[in-house]
Request: fold
Amino acid sequence: MSNQKLFNIAVVGATGAVGEQIIRLLQERNFPIQELKLLSSARSAGSKLSFKGKDVVVQEATPDSFEGVDIALFSAGGDVSKALVPEAIKRGTVCIDNTSAFRMDPETPLVVPEVNIDKINENKGVIANPNCSTIQMVQTLKPLYDRYGISRIIVSTYQAVSGAGAKAIDEMLRQSKEILAGNEVEPQILPVGSLPVKHQIAFNAIPQIDKFVDNGFTYEEMKMINETKKIMGDETLEVTATCVRIPVVYGHSESVYVELKEDFDIEEVKQLLAGSPGIVLVDNPAEQQYPLASDAAGKLETFVGRVRRDLSNPRALNLWIVSDNLLKGAAWNAVQIAEYIAIEQH
Reply:
């Protein structure tokens, strides 16, 4: 990005797990930054984070924080985004929002760069980053959608505790030690911090991510259903989801059943996936090679394997999809959007 315009960048939620990854990626990608503002809640303000060998003091995020800021990347929770994104837009800032605050707003583009990058230019000041589980699924299914059409998707997720924040990681590790020592545990965080009933996550699988809605699905499941239709630009898609939290630190895994509209050749499907940007095909059952969360952790790509024709429906496929939920599922997707904006304004 030599001879490129330099940008004033703000990271909101800089001290959080996603915020820290955004800062690391901006540094590693050598994003063209003139000034970097690191913003957080009053509680974290005053702390220091390193960027390119220099300490940057974290400031409290207020409406005036966005004066002179070109691009702001938000990952501080939906309430913060609802309060501050409109203030940032008023001051001429383009906002990339990692929360669910604007995802289903008809005026707001919901973007996965490998799927619908053209939508970025339709923004009215804010671009939404989809849910982590949605991102890796639509990124994988997009080449199949374009080639064969898709009528139906059934997804079951196996989601890492990092998706619920640092306290959830701590809880899982603490519980694991206690149980291995033969002690009782008292769950305090999962599945949902604000709900009265808590469940053990160590050595367990919890079929609840976020609160339940009236139809028996959770908000997380409804996000996957609604966001997939919006990103693909196809309201006729039939999508259903079951989202499960498992005791893994980083990396969401998904079992996906997808019904295509046309017949397909399984080798062509694999070649399509292997040739798609940001996707790595790991699919060699004879050698027991398939995507693992432990391999995907810390990587920017989405990994796909266990690709096979369904036995009961010849037009259906089964896939296994794995990606780092804090990277492609959040920080990397947001930084990709910022890079596109920077290139467009060059």
Q: What stands out?
A: The radius of gyration is 20 Å. The chain is about 30% helix and 25% strand. The longest strand covers residues 150-159.
